[in-house]
From TrEMBL:
<dbReference type="InterPro" id="IPR039261">
    <property type="entry name" value="FNR_nucleotide-bd"/>
</dbReference>
<feature type="domain" description="CpcD-like">
    <location>
        <begin position="17"/>
        <end position="75"/>
    </location>
</feature>
<keyword id="KW-0521">NADP</keyword>
<dbReference type="GO" id="GO:0031676">
    <property type="term" value="C:plasma membrane-derived thylakoid membrane"/>
</dbReference>
<protein>
    <recommendedName>
        <fullName>Ferredoxin--NADP reductase</fullName>
        <ecNumber>1.18.1.2</ecNumber>
    </recommendedName>
</protein>
<dbReference type="InterPro" id="IPR001709">
    <property type="entry name" value="Flavoprot_Pyr_Nucl_cyt_Rdtase"/>
</dbReference>
<dbReference type="InterPro" id="IPR035442">
    <property type="entry name" value="FNR_plant_Cyanobacteria"/>
</dbReference>
<dbReference type="GO" id="GO:0030089">
    <property type="term" value="C:phycobilisome"/>
</dbReference>
<comment type="similarity">
    <text>Belongs to the ferredoxin--NADP reductase type 1 family.</text>
</comment>
<dbReference type="InterPro" id="IPR001433">
    <property type="entry name" value="OxRdtase_FAD/NAD-bd"/>
</dbReference>
<dbReference type="InterPro" id="IPR017938">
    <property type="entry name" value="Riboflavin_synthase-like_b-brl"/>
</dbReference>
<dbReference type="Pfam" id="PF01383">
    <property type="entry name" value="CpcD"/>
</dbReference>
<dbReference type="GO" id="GO:0004324">
    <property type="term" value="F:ferredoxin-NADP+ reductase activity"/>
</dbReference>
<keyword id="KW-0793">Thylakoid</keyword>
<feature type="domain" description="FAD-binding FR-type">
    <location>
        <begin position="126"/>
        <end position="250"/>
    </location>
</feature>
<feature type="binding site">
    <location>
        <begin position="370"/>
        <end position="371"/>
    </location>
    <ligand>
        <name>NADP(+)</name>
    </ligand>
</feature>
<dbReference type="InterPro" id="IPR017927">
    <property type="entry name" value="FAD-bd_FR_type"/>
</dbReference>
Amino acid sequence: MNNPTAVGAAANTSAGSRMFRYEVVGLRQNAETDKRDYPIRNSGSTFITVPYTRMNEIMQRITRLGGKIVSITPLDGNGATANVTAEQKTVGGNPETKQEAQKAEKKPMTQAKEKADIPVNIYRPNAPFVARVISNEPLVGEGGIGICQHVKFDLSGGDLRYLEGQSIGVIPPGVDKNGKPEKLRLYSIGSTRHGDDLNDTTVSLCVRQLEYKHPESGETIYGVCSTYICNLKPGDEVKVTGPTGKEMLLPPDEDSTIIMLATGTGIAPFRAFLWRMFKDGERQLNSEYQFKGLAWLVFGIPTSPNILYKEELEEMQAKYPDNFRLTYAISREQKNQEGGRMYIQHRVAEHAEEMWNLLQSPKTHVYMCGLKGMEDGIDEAFSAQAAKAGIEWKEYRSQLKKAGRWHVETY
């Protein structure tokens, strides 16, 4: 919290009037920040001179923009300098330990523009990061189908950075049927780069326990890793890898139209998108990204109690009715035009003309995440609409993908 009285007092002391020079690297630009005359928004190696009283403020701004402090140099009245490395730096007059300095340098990523900016495989299967479970909360309401959990992990002490739309791997304990160590499973991240607590030290997953009948014996089979995750307790340690994925990232354009098609736990990356777009705390952290476009989520679920993150979604829709549109396809409660169950492809077919018109803008992106079975029905809906315009859908879809506007992650 900013305390004007304390700042004013410091400014009247010799320490408060001292100047310090920061050397910063890794700051990136976008079209919006280029318009602003902020020295720390320039890319490359940057030197910033600040008074003692503004050191914390500037460090926080550097953190928000993904920069790394190389050195902090005190300046005396005669211009003499004494170099101070990031490991030895002082903040507000208090020397930090090496561990604290390294933690401070774990910067959140700015909105990715180039694939070179995207963090990938910071932790690999042969050297995973050991995260600790903070919480494990049920997402399916009473009367719903199956088990689905929102699991939050503590990443403190590590360097696992990620962007919205990426995934992490989880390595379950034990061995497989061949006696070999279990392999990792990938899960879409359900939190923004800042984490649910907005402190850059957590990551969250949305995990459904896999359950099916054995085709021959009829025995109920439970997924190894999903069952492991769904039964984790706060304090448990988990081996994680990643992040991975460059396909599902948000465009940097704040005026984009983002059409999101999700089934079940496919909501995970879109929860991260929507938090980044509409959550108050996120918007305060992201001065370089203030979403002003249209986000349209079509969410397919079997029953109303299976609407994952229902309160969050509807709260954001109520607060931003002009920017966030929410459409449900509840298969066991709603009927399609033919009188059958309402699946996500039927909702897309209902709105195909409007979506097709939105697709004519180069700022429109379509994201699809969830069960692979929805792809054919969605293609069919768009194909019928494209045909009205004399366009072959598959060719058009290929052009969208080549332009980076058609994003699919299904399983």
